[in-house]
Amino acid sequence: MNGTSGPGPLTGSRASAIGVMGGTFDPIHYGHLRLAEEMAECLELEHVLFIPAGQPPHRGAPRTAPAHRLEMVRRAVAGNPRFVADAREVARAAPSYTVDTLTALRAELGPDRPLWLLLGADAFLGLPDWHQWRRLFDLANVVVAERPGPFEQQRDAMPDALRHEVVRREVADGAAAGSAGAILLRRMTPLDISATALRATLVRHGSVRYLLPDAVLDYIHEQKLYT
Ligand code: ATP
Ligand code: MG
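^ thats the input. predicted complex w/ adenosine-5'-triphosphate below
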């Protein structure tokens, strides 16, 4: 039992692609879900694994216990057979590095299955601070949901090391990518939702309805999270 739920995401046909959506998910919201939905559609992903970070290495301890963040993810993805809540990082006591998670997934999938790391633009710009970040490209492709605004401006915001990787690796669409090593920059429906803003609103007992699934909001109220 590896903590996943759903129809055995790693046992499908050899060619089918898998997406990985990491985050703190404190709480999960429609920005995360919509990013995964749009990228899953355009890349024809068989499954997207939502993997809440246990102890994220890049930031302070999340406000909410890992078990609650995992349960919110479970409730958010219930009813979408393509989406899977994956407990592997939450189950670990040590900080979870994405490179370790992708190494484990690659070992499970074998060398030929396309693996896509799904990132928002803000996360992508911070990539050079991640542990062994260049190794990520040996393990997976990366799709970046770009923010609205001129493309060139966003490229200018990239650290040089990252821009260098984009120049080397960028593909025009998912079909041009192999199992790992490509970078795809894609627009998504802009949704200006952040967990930080949701937490701030919840603390002052404001409404966050329609910014995240009702099932997640019900759980937040049941468990008296963010109060
Ligand atoms: P926080 O405000 O606590 O940082 P967050 O809403 O940014 O939370 P994270 O867990 O930090 O959520 O983000 C996980 C992933 O989701 C990252 O790749 C991030 O870029 C992406 N993401 C977060 N919010 C959005 C959004 N509104 N639209 C698109 N992508 C998003
Ligand atoms: Mg964030």
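Residues 30-43 form the longest helix (14 residues).
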